[in-house]
Every structure is written in C-alpha cells, then in structure tokens.
Amino acid sequence: MATRNEIRCDLLVIGGGIAAAFAAIKARERGVKVVLVDKAFFGRSGCSALASGVYRAYMPGDDLEAWLEEACSTPLVNRTLAERAILKTNDCLMEMDRWGVKWIKEGGWIMREFGGGGGLPFKTNAMMAEGGLQMMMALRGQAIRMGVQIVNRVMMTDLLTNDGAHPTEGSVVGAVGFEARTAEPWVFESKATVVATGPYRFPYPPSGGGFAGMPINASADGIAMMLRAGAILGKFEMGGGSPHPHEFQCAPGLEMLGGLGCKFVDAEGKNLFSMSPNSKPASGNTLTQNRRSALGHNILRETRAARHAYLDCTHFTPEQHRLVKQVVPIVIHTFERAGYDLSKDRVPYSSALALVHGGSGCGARINGKGETSLAGLYAAGICSDGGYIRMGQALPEASVVGAWAGESAAEFTKECAENVLDQRQVESLVAKALAPLNQDAGQKVSFGVLHSKLENFIVKDIDHILNGGRLDHALETVGEIKAREVDRLAAADPHELAKVHALKNFIECFEPAARVVLRRTESRGNVLRDDYPFIDNSQWAKFTVFRKEAESVRIWEEPLPEDRPRVEKAKIPHPFFR
Amino acid sequence: MNYVKIDQIVCTGCGACVDSCPTDVIRMEPRSRKANVVYAEDCQVCFLCEFDCPVDAILVSPRGWPEPGIPQE
Fold first, then answer.
1. Which stretches of chain B score pLDDT less than 70?
2. Taking Cα atoms as reference points, which of A131, A189, A202, A140 lies closest to residue A160?
3. Do B51 and A250 touch (CB under 8 A)?
4. CA distance A150 to A152
5. Facing B46 at nearest CB: one of A214, A247, A337
6. A503: which of A42, A63, A95, A262 is 20 to 30 A away, CA to CA?
7. Which CATH number fits domain A244-350: 3.90.700.10, 3.40.50.2300, 3.90.1150.10, 3.30.200.20?
8. What interface predicted TM-score (ipTM) does this complex get?
9. Does A214 sit within 8 Å of B21, measured CB to CB?
C-alpha cells in the first residue's frame, strides 16, 4: 500500500469555499488546531471562487422587517434563525473587509446594488472587485495568517465514527480520503468535523442543455459522506436550479445583472421577463416561487417550444457595463471570448433540468450552531439545509452558517477527550476509497460509459418537468445501476478516481432526493410536476427529511417551526401550467 | 475540445496554473518543466489559469482552440 498520511487535529474542515473559510478562521480565533482539506486548491476551488461577485448584506439603518418579510416570502423558512442570520451578514461583511477582501467602495464606504434574486426596495448587494476569485484569495490569506493548516488536492471519501459503524449511533471522529494526484491515502483524526463541500449536482456535466455549470467537479461528496455516516438530511424537495447560459458553464451572473435590471427576451426581442429591482413574480404569490424560479419557468416555456430565451443587457449604461466586468469577470470574459458584446448582443440562456441541482442548498439538517444530528459533525454552506435561513443568495448563507459552525465546533472540541480511531474502519474505508483503481479487468465499468448513460437518462427520464411515472422509472434505472454497475466502476488513474467518487456520490444522493420529491404531490418553487400541476397549500408546510438506517433510507416529515406564518389551505393551479 | 492554450515559449514553469486549476487539468511536464494540459476534457473554462499566469502565457476560449494537426474547414 502507498504511504499513508496521518494528521491529528482539533477541528477538521472539509471544503474550500466561503463556508469552509469562515468555519476555519472562526475556530482558529478560539485557539483550537484547525486543518482545512480541499479536493482542489483552497482559494481557487468550489462555488465561491466562481460566484457572482456580490454579497447580500444587511447594514445598520436598513429596514429589518422588510428584510425578514422578504426572506419569509419564499417557501420553508425558519424565521427566528433568519433574523439572526440577516444581522450576522453585516458582521461577516465587515470582517471580510478587515481581512482584505476588496469591495467596490465610494468615499470609503462599501457600495451596494439592488438584489438580483429578491424584491427588496432598497440596495442590499455589496460587490467584490474582481469577483469571487479575489474574495476567496483574501479569505485564504486570512486563514493562513490565522494559522489554519491547509491540505490541498486531497479528496475526502468517508467520515470516521467512534463506534466504527456506518450509519453510526455514536459520533464523528475524523475522515479518510486520498491525494487526487497520487492516490496516497490520508487519515484525519479530529475531535470535530465541519463538512462544507458544496452542492448536490450531476458532476462533470456537458456544456449547456440545462445542466448546472461551474464548478463541474461539484457533486455531492460531503452530502453522501454525511448520508453514509447516518446524519439526518433535508431540503431536497424544492429543487434549486436556476437559468444558465445555454452554451457555457459559467455562473449565470444574475445576482449582479438582475440587480442592474437585465431583461430576458425572445428571439424577436420581445420582453419575457424583466429583472428590475422591484418587480414581483408574475404569479403574485412569492410563496410558490421566487423570482429566480419564475424566470426559469419563463425560459422553460421558450425551451419547450424549441426556442431560446436571451439575456439582454443592451440598455445598460457604459458605466454599468464597466461595473459588471469588474464584479463578474468570469461571466463577462466567457461571453466576450465567445464573441458576445453585452452592450449590443443578447446571450442565449436555458432553464435548469430538475433534480440534478442543489443550488439553493440541500444536505445535512443543521441548527443555529451548525450542528448536524451526529455529535462531532457540523455542516455549513450548500451541502447543508442552511438551517432554513433562506437569504436569497448562497454566499451570505454560507458565510453566516460557516461562522456559526466554526465557533460552536471549536467550543465542542475544548470539552472533548482524544478519540481512538477504530483501525478496522480506517482500513476498510481506505480500501474502499482506492478500490476503483484495482478492478478486475473483466468486471470493469468505465467512468465515461456510466457518465454518458446517466446523462442521457437525466435528459430523457428526468427532464425539466417531473412526472411520478417517469420518476418511478428513473428510480428503477438508478436502482439497477447501483446494484450492477457502481461497485464495478474503474478509475484509470488517481485523477479519474476523484471523478469516479464524484459520480458515485451523486448516484447515492439521487435516490433519496427523487423519493422526497415524489412524496410532495404538488408543484412549487423550482419543482414542476405535470401529474400534480397545482400548488397544494394544505400539503406543503412541512420539512421532509431522511436518514440512512442499515441498508435503506427512511424518509419522514416534520412540522415547520411555530413562528412560521400559516398559509391558507387551498389548492390553486401552478402559474406555469395555467 | 481544447479550451486552454499554453504558449510553451512564454511559459516560465512557475506552476501558478498547476496550483490554481480547480479541476486539475494542468500539470508540469517533467522534462520541459513547462505547464501542460493533461486532462483537457475536464476544463470548465473558468479562466483562473489565465488570470493567475504572471507572464500571460495562457489563453482560454469557451469556443475552443483548433486541435494541432487537424485541418480546419
């Protein structure tokens, strides 16, 4: 066996985006030994570095009631926690400013623009100079100054538990993984672990065609790890897709472009949807869909008629175009290199396929301390349910929850005795991680073959609009793939080993995600079902959660917190199907 | 499709792109000590290598660059 690397620490942070950075820095401020492990390069990997360059933040003097009302106008929100989170975004913003994140400023003050996804009548979005990549390198710098130990290019595959069992009734005491360039095994022993590994997604998607874009290596790594370890997971029922540039992988840029009032038009230039700051969704009922999903539905109508919808920013002023280039450089670079000049050209966008995105955050159920249902395990960012704080944007949610998780995990480690790892579990999980490198020649299933099979089935069987019959069929297909092919997946080299694990993790999470959606017999948010083309207000006010128990996954519903206003009990047609 | 073009004459072999590529597409070629696109199929066209290159040796295109040796229409 290859050399094994072993590290012992107080807190292990898995992931390298804004949630992981906040968790690591906040824990270091409390004096504990923190190791951050990233499957790529911390500061350059994950969703945050490629994000839309804006950070939605509360500032003293804002109308807090308006913030709260807006947050709670979308489905499934924990109002008490949302209030704490909204106030906390200001702390996070100011901390990032002190740590060296460069914001667009005017007279020394951080400038804000209107939100692209929400309907607040005042400006909320702070803008990063040079986008998320600048922000993440500044956070990396702060983590290094604080003494966080960084391990790059190591992909974690499984959590370790104090009883050596999966799923565990005990606690999480570390994790195992491998070096993505050499396949050398890594074993981390920690008193607490924060998982901040990003969204549930179909990994390595083809360009356009309704698949989510960058980062293409986001899959469901942390979510699947937490599922196997026995944590309770949730929030898979709302979908999360947002419209994407049809030809490219880059972020949609809508947080920024929408805040400046971009439009979407049809091929003739007729207005389909305007993102102007104060416009409400066409349905007039924000509990059924937010503006992003309403936009997605408008674009979907065009897609289904074999047409495109086009992003139109031709009415922006030269000053606005300059600002956009500064704040979302990756998006604008992509468009420019492809030959689009936003001051005169329109760019085709397409709607997201259902059930292959977790853009709005689904994963481990957490509380206001970032604690999951397992002792010693914390989660933050969009691999968690975010505590249902629903800020209308992923970056502030992830930073706030990351800070909560880092602070409370650090306190937890101070009262924790040293763990003793179950060496049998370590051996077996390391062997499992490396198994795809050593498959029998006659048994091998290649990554490419299974990946295209899944891609075809997602496009044909899942589609944009869901249907119970087709979903049952999809579950059958995935069940067969799981039974016959997943364990035979082979990796040609360490690089492909990471891809194989990403695909396996997606497959593992797909099944419960689809079953959760099947249980919600209505259409709402990003989820459209042609067999249930109505909004069922008697059925929706519940959290659907699940947990792995022995070999099966148990799904159940839980009531919303009491502080959530009740909606009238009525079935109304979903605006998309009207 | 080749989305990344690294000018082998301009490249100084500093390794900035090898570090920064989120999908680990670029590796150092041991003999020439220059950066080399090894896993072109995993390039997501994020421009990070181009932004991070201190000597402007890298060009990224979402439409892709012609494969060397393949005649273009």
1. 68-73
2. A189
3. no
4. 6
5. A214
6. A42
7. 3.90.700.10
8. 0.93
9. no
